[in-house]
Design goal:
Layout: E1 5-7, H1 24-35, E2 40-42, H2 71-76, H3 82-86
Parallel strand pairs: 1-2
Length: 103
């Protein structure tokens, strides 16, 4: 039996803080897949990145990538402030994940 799906890395989801995370946008994307009748969402590896920030060269099989932590959730829980998150450089061009590097 054939099925179809979508390949979308977590980092490609929209986010105010640089790259996508396990946030409300991820849940909204899953809901959108369900409404569209999709059953498969393939993602890239979720481990901490290694050399060259590659998800395929992780230093640990067990560790998750801290890049995917939802900063909005931490702000809502009072663990971070918007000012603390805003003080970090997440780039300023919405077309690029890491616009500082031109990638």
């Amino acid at each position: 039996m054939r099925t179809s799906g979508v390949l979308l890395p977590i980092s490609a989801l929209p986010s105010r803080y640089g790259i996508g995370s396990f946030s409300k946008e991820a849940f909204a994307f899953v809901d959108q897949l369900k409404r569209g009748g999709q059953k498969n969402w393939q993602i890239l590896p979720l481990g901490a990145t290694g050399y060259g920030d590659s998800p395929y060269q992780s230093f640990s099989t067990y560790a998750g990538n801290p890049y995917y932590i939802d900063l909005e959730a931490l702000i809502a829980e009072g663990l971070l402030t918007k000012a603390e998150c805003g003080a970090c450089d997440f780039g300023d061009n919405p077309r690029y994940i890491f616009s500082r590097y031109g990638v």
